Amino acid sequence: LHVQPETHPLSNLVRKLSAIGPLSEEEAAHIYGLPAIVRDFRAGHDLVREGDTPSQACVMLEGLSCRFKIVGEGAKQVFSYHIPGDIPDLQSLHISSMDHTLGTLAPSKVAFVPHRALRNMIVAHPRLGGLLWRDTLVDGSIFREWLCNIGRRSALARIAHMICELHARYDKVGMVEAGTIPFPLTQANLGDAQGLSVVHVNRVMRELKARRLISVSARQLTVLDWEALTDLGDFDPAYLHFTST
Amino acid sequence: LHVQPETHPLSNLVRKLSAIGPLSEEEAAHIYGLPAIVRDFRAGHDLVREGDTPSQACVMLEGLSCRFKIVGEGAKQVFSYHIPGDIPDLQSLHISSMDHTLGTLAPSKVAFVPHRALRNMIVAHPRLGGLLWRDTLVDGSIFREWLCNIGRRSALARIAHMICELHARYDKVGMVEAGTIPFPLTQANLGDAQGLSVVHVNRVMRELKARRLISVSARQLTVLDWEALTDLGDFDPAYLHFTST
DNA sequence: CGCCGGTTTGAAGAATTTCAAAGGGAGTGG
DNA sequence: CCACTCCCTTTGAAATTCTTCAAACCGGCG
Lengths: 245, 245
Known about the structure:
2 copies of one chain form a homodimer.
Chain A: H1 11-20, H2 25-32, E1 37-41, E2 46-48, E3 56-62, E4 65-71, E5 75-82, E6 101-104, E7 108-114, H3 115-124, H4 126-152, H5 155-172, E8 180-182, H6 187-194, H7 198-210, E9 214-217, E10 220-223, H8 226-233
Antiparallel strand pairs in A: 1-7, 2-6, 3-7, 4-5, 4-6, 8-10, 9-10
Chain A binds a DNA duplex (30 and 30 nucleotides) through helix 7.
């Protein structure tokens, strides 16, 4: 549909943005023209650290990253996962100092786009600016849903909900095949995100497998019963604010 | 400092925005010129409901409101409190459908500003648009801190942290007097925000009073030992992103 | 006075954590 | 190719935090 081939590094950014709002050919072209430095990282690399004042924004091209803070005596709290197409630290465009860290959870390919180029783009294409703003707002919406998750749902429902979210988001960028999504997360990772201990995450995962809702192997997760999983996790994708396409 | 008298209804919005970034005389004047309808509400009134598609934004002038969702079997999860100067549903400017509800927790005075007027303002004063964007990003930052709170801190630390946040934010808009802040929240409200049962909130509050960290009376809360309270709550105001002023 | 929403208390029960240790599996070096 | 290591998963059992249930209390207000 768009000018550039699907092989352009920023093509899944374009796909993601057009998933959250209409994108004209001209706007897409501007995105493809953005200066970007692409780099590969191993799992466990911090892309941006708490306290940094970045001058560029990250675009996830491949792999998985997460945002987190270290709380109190070393407990880690993860706020969000970021899959290809996401711009995890877009907020640094308007908040100079990072209040949390962004790190990879799997080997990842990341594009860095200078803030300057993004600001110019926003001036030239105010509608694109609105889309980016909207993206940061959806970000906030996801945080709110996670608050519901951690604050009010049982461990079983929490994990189920989180799997549903990942599935829905991977689906939106065309990365689901027969109910199977990439799943490089360790059980410790899951615990950090859901405020649970590793031991308990393990028991919950066992339960989900025993109920034949999911199966996990080789860093891939398959949803066996979407209906039952969304039901258990009290999952309603409205908070992801996908456009009606 | 600014053109308009402190008595203008939107003066605490101006004060709040200049607290999160520099504001020129001209920009302040534009804000004072915004069309606004001011209304009073009793406690417990829903200003905007989940599913609504508002065409105006709320500015808190007096009182207290909160954003929340009903999870599963009627459990309420509160995401944020909103004090005078806040624009709790600014996100509706770019996300048409509300994914949560905004309601008052105390008798409140609210100004409604049409989205259209805000959009015009953003076009006329891009820097103001940036400030508003920044405000929504700080919003997200607060959600993240609440995730840390609920996910990783004990009930005692959570409540302490929340009191510290309220104190810091009230302070920023000049509403703290001798360590005393407005505190219309019931213990059920606190529980809804922190993912705790009323019973447990009660015990935590008793403990905080017993430790001589706070005192509560007549819908006012006084911080008796700020140092100890911030320590207990693991509170670092960096996430509120106040400007250095 | 009596009601009502909110607070407080006690006691039992559930969910989840912590501690401790064993079991896999994939990559690495010998 | 095997042995070793490291990281992750899995399991058991005790301890803790917090919830639920139930009921009393309290203060303001009609």
